[in-house]
Amino acid sequence: MVTIAYILLGSNIGDRLTNIHQALSLLSTVEDTTIVKQSSIIETQPLEFTEQPDFLNCVVEVVTGLDAVNVLHHLLDIENALGRVRTVAKGPRTIDCDLLLFGNVVCTTKHLILPHPQIYSRPFVWQLLSEINMNITDPVSHKLLNEVVACHQ
Predict the structure, then answer these.
(1) Residue 54 annotated in active site
(2) Is 16 a catalytic residue?
(3) Which of 34, 88, 125, 128 has an alpha carbon 20 to 30 Å from 147's alpha carbon atom?
């Protein structure tokens, strides 16, 4: 079974653009997973812990034969490979890889929440998602992403 997933990449430490490109390169080597589309890379301000540098962010669409938990493990491996250290919650990081959507999967576990809970509270996330695909359907409401976003504004 093949699933379309959307992943947010972000970096605000060191050479942010190189960090994003290295994460994309590592993501392209994940078994049974192919990057199909990539949004533009934009600069965004930190939202929760604001005393840190601005981020570069992009979203990628992938097609994968893996399940969501395995994709998440690969994303954590990419973060570790690029030197992410978790010392401050929502703090500065070399790379952040967030699984935003995984097909129509809806789940809440200790380590994985789908769809990602901050899709609609971070305007840049849904803007980048919309840049890739205007017809993404929210797996909870079954409405188009842009319709759900309109309800959250």
Answers:
(1) no
(2) no
(3) 34
